[in-house]
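Thanks for the sequence, V.! I ran ANKF1 protein right away. Repeating your input here for the record:
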Amino acid sequence: KMTQQMRDLQLAQARKPPGPSSPNAAKRLYRNLSGKFRVNYTSFDEGSLAGRSEKEKLRKSYLFQSNAALFEAVELQDLDRVQELLKQYSPEELDLNTPNSEGLLPLDIAIMTNNAPIAKALLQAGAKESPHFVSLESRSLHLSTLVREAEQRVNELTAQVVNEAPNADCSEKEKQLKAWEWRYRLYKRMKAGFEHARVPDPPTNVHLSVGSSSSVQVTFWEPLSVNSAVVTKYKVEWSCSPTFSPPLGEAVIDKLKNLHFTIRGLVSGTAYYVQVSAYNMKGWGPPQTSVPPFAIPSNWREYDGRAPRRRGQAEALDHLLSQVKTVHQHCVCHEPCKNQAQSRKHSVSKSLKHLFHPGSKFLKTLKRGLYLTAVFYKDDNILVTHEDQIPVVEIDDTYSCLLMQDFLWFTKVSCMWDEILWLRQCVTVSQSSCSCILQTRFKMLLATSQMQGLLGIQDLGQVFFEPIKDKQGNILIVTLKEVKTNQTFESVRWVPICKLQTSRKSVSSPEEPTALDTLLITVQDKLAYHRRSSHALSPGLYLGYLKLCSAVDQIRVLVPERLPNILCHVKIRSNPNISREEWEWLQKMVSMDEPVPTEPEAEMSQNHLFQELQVAIKELMTLVNIPLQEAKDFRLYSQEVLDFGGQVSFLLLLPPSDDVCTAPGQNNPYTPRSGFLTLPLQIFELGEKR
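Predicted structure:
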């Protein structure tokens, strides 16, 4: 019996010298007693593994102590300590779901003492209820046994303390008595918590939406009632009948970090009803049907049978590029193969001749021309030459005015860093026309090859969206790349950015800085732009605002600084799919020339998308500093939903036709607040594709 085991252990403990007699010491004493029971489960395995290292033994002992500490923290209702242990150790290291000698788990103690914060913390960490409690009767019997045996042990120790003369053994028994009295009160509280608990109320805000042509999504919240026990799992049921007879399927959700579930493998065009119920230690509560009561799997493309716009595009472009390469491979006008050998030599040569060759060095100063610089960074460090300068090579020393079309062409080259040699050969073939544009672009490719060879790196990263210009006639094209791993490079080394900025001696005045000084002053801003431009949106449906402005040689698009690869936007909902019914409603609203919905209407109250759009449009108008009353002149783009990888989709909000693109010299009546910038349209397109 448990009582006899504990009595034997207490006799062994009685032989030890007396320790502290504080209440916490009494509680730790019982934890030590319980700990000895838990050791018995693994003692056979540990004893059978001869030759185990002392380090491994110490580690297991340390983890065992953390398991005991977790039980103690739960029993003492110490939420901070529980959270600290869950953060410090993994569930496996804590033996989170291994019952102790009383057949209890930490989650059992938390829910039967109705400590909801600790129970929720344990559930989010993956805690389970004890498998010993297969029924309400077994749980009740187990608790009654624990209470009875604890009460019996308290009575036995009380009699021993009263009858024995004061000595060391008596002092030890008094500490044991305090521990058992505390344990007795804990078991009684757990038993009372179980007896007074009731099954949970239904979950709240059960919302059903269409996930795709073959799935629906259900989201829900916890029950509102605070009188029932902690909910430990939920059950989602679905059927084609509103009475759920017969049921088609069910799923139990015991990972409670996110209360949602996607029902997959459904038939498009069929109505499915869904209900959700909650479970606690008293059993399953009544189900709650969803709102709306059913959903029909579908997608907006089913409205007119439209195929995805990008289907097969990537494959077609790859095929076209391979055909172009094949044609050029048989062209006799190719640049001689020595260029290829020279490029390889630049990338692998480590000889002194390579390092000091006049055509194969980084530049220290700029002399009125067009230049290329590559900024490689890792955390707060940046790659510099041995002269502590950012790597720079010359493109053209006679080029004092960079045409925007040349710059935008070079940004497209950044998508093909590995094909620079082939592109050089192609441009060389066409130089017979003596085109200045082709000559400039050929020099850009030569400078790129030189930079790649000097660094020993093919991928130079992303081109910054605008070149740096100074009053001395220098133009600097900047590429940015983040290095994820620790790498060493030829001819360059890592230095902290702050050290580079403070140690560099400027040769220009603050009023007229050179392009290199400007780069160094603004490098942190450029790195921040590069990091933000690689961020991705979380899955969901978004409302984007399309606003363009034109100049003489380019069109620019308004984007947020915090995410410059995406249009100005707000999130409508977490579900990216628009169902056929929702798209049909949007088409009807557009065909009737209805204004953008900003105010609630009684007849639209049942249309959930309508309500979501109202909230999103108000938020977006505030974001871009446009008065809400002007929204009546705005339009929703109704030709398609912009789909990005199946997880992110966009509806577009367009200004009035005359204001979609602001012409040069035209005043924009609504200026966005700070936190926005305008990018060249081609740069934005490249960033979106990345």
